[in-house]
Amino acid sequence: METTSKQARVPVKRPMLAMLGVLVGAFVGMFSETSLNIALPQLIYALNISTASAQWLVTGYMLVIGIVLPFSSLLTKWFSTRQLVIFGLSDFLLGAIISALAPNFALLLVGRMVQGIATGIILPLMFTLAMQIFSPNKLGAAMGICALVIMFAPAVGPTLTGLILAKLSWNWIFWSFVPFLVIALLAAIRYLPNVGQITRPKLDFPSLFGSIIGFSTLVMGVSFASEFGFGSLIVLALLVIAIITLFFYTKRQLTLTEPILNLRIFKLRDFSVGASLVMIDFAIILSAMYLLPQYIQNGLLLPVALTGIIMLPGGIVNAIISAIAGRLYDKNGATTPVQIGFTLALIGAVMLAFTSTTSSIGYVILAHVILMIGCPLAMSPAQTHALNALNGAQAADGSTIMNTLQQIVGAVATALATLLLTFGESIDPSRKAATAFTTGVHYGIYFTIALIILGLIISLGLRKKEK
To answer: Which residues form the signal peptide (predicted)?
Structure first.
C-alpha cells in the first residue's frame, strides 16, 4: 500500500530551484534523442553518407544511453549528486559543441555518443532527486514535471527542428543546445544539493561487463532489426548474445549482496505493476509517434514542415496533461488516472486506425490530441506509484531500472512498428503508393492498440492509495 507523510527525505528550502539544472539537462537530452530524425536527409547530403550510416546518429546515441543507464545507481554510490550532475551537464555541453563543429560524419558520431553519456547519467538522477527532496504529498506534482520533460521534448522535437532547418544549417540544431546547457550548469552549481550516501561498494567486474555486453547487443540487435529484419544473421547473433548475457547478468544480480542493479525490487507488487505500465505507455508513445509523421508525409502526401505543425497541438496537450496528471495522483492515487488515460489512448489509436489517404488534417490532429491526453495521464501516476513503493535506498535502483527499460522497450517498439508497417505496405503491390503505405501504418497502429489493451488489463492490478 502507498503511504503518506509530510516530511521530505532530504529537506530543501527551494526544491524546484534545486531541480532546475537536471530538468533542463534532461529536456535537452530527450530533445536530442528525437531531433535528428527530421534532419537525416540534410545530413546525408551535407556529409555525403549513406542512409544506413546516418541512422547511427540516432541509434548510436540510444546505444550509449542504454549502456550508461544501468550504472547510474552504482555511480550514485561512488560520487555525489553534484559531481554527477555537473559532470553530466559539462559532458553534454562538450558533446554539443563537438557535434556543432563536426566537419565529417565520424566526429559528429563521436559528439553524439558523448551526449549519450550525459543523458544516461542525468535522466535517472532527475527522478531520484525528486524522490528525495519533495515531500510525499507534493511528489505527484513533481513527478508530473519530470514526466513533462520526458514526454514533451520528443513531442516538440520535430517541430522545433523543422523550424531551425527552414532557415539554418543542421549545425544549429546542436548550437541551440548550448545556451540551455549553460543555464542548467550554472543552476546546478548554485542550487543543487547532495542527496544519498556515498558508500563506494566493491565493483563486480563480471556484472560490469555483462551489463555492457548484454544491453549494448540488445539495443544494437533491435536497432538493426528495423533495417534488416529479425531474420538477419547479424540480428539473430546479436539477440542471442544479448539474451544469454542478460540471463546470467540477471541471475548474478539476484545473488550478489550489493548488485549493480537491484532487481529484487521487482518482488514488490506495486513497483512491478507501476513499472510495467510505464514501459507499456512508453512503447505506445514511441510506436505511434514513429508511425504518425510518416503517415502524414507518405499517406496524406503533406510536406515535412507541415508535418511538424500538425503534430504540435498534441505536443502542447501532452505537456499540459503531464503536469496535471501528477496532481491527480496526489489526490486520488494511480488507479483512476491510469485507467482513464489508457481508455482515452485507445480511442485516439482506434481513430488513427481508421485514417485514409483522404482523411482531413483536423481529424488527424484530433486523434493525435486524444492519444496525447491519454498517454501522459497514465504515465506520471504509474511512475509515481512504482517509485513510491520503494524506500530511499531503493529509489535510485527503481529510477535506473525504469529508465533503462524505457530505452530498450522504445527500440523494440519502434522495430516492431517498422516490421508491421513494411508487411502491411507489401500486401498488395498493385495499389497506389500512398494507399499501400497507409495500410502499412494501420498494421503498425494495430500493434499500438494491442499495447493499450495490455496496459488496461495490467492497470486492474493497481492498488488504491491509502488515505
So the answer is: none
The verdict on residue 57 lying in a domain is yes
Q: How far is CA 397 from CA 121, 259, 262, 391, in A?
A: 13, 10, 6, 10
Asked if residues 313 and 155 have their Cβ atoms less than 8 Å apart, the reply is: no
The CA-based diameter of the chain, rounded to the nearest angstrom, is 66
CA torsion through residues 318, 319, 322, 323, sign: negative
CA 426 to chain centre: 30
The x, y and z cell numbers of residue 2, run together, are: 502507498
Q: What residues contact 168, with CB distance under 8 A and at least 6 apart?
A: none
* 224 falls within a domain: yes
The structural domain count of the chain equals 3
Q: With H, G, I as helix, E, B as strand and everything else as coil, classify residue 29.
A: helix
pTM of the model: 0.75
Kindly write down the DSSP assignment for every residue of 297-351, as one continuous string.
IIIS---HHHHHHHHHHHHHHHHHHHHHHHHHHHHH-SHHHHHHHHHHHHHHHHH
Q: How far apart are CA 261 and CA 283, in angstroms?
A: 22
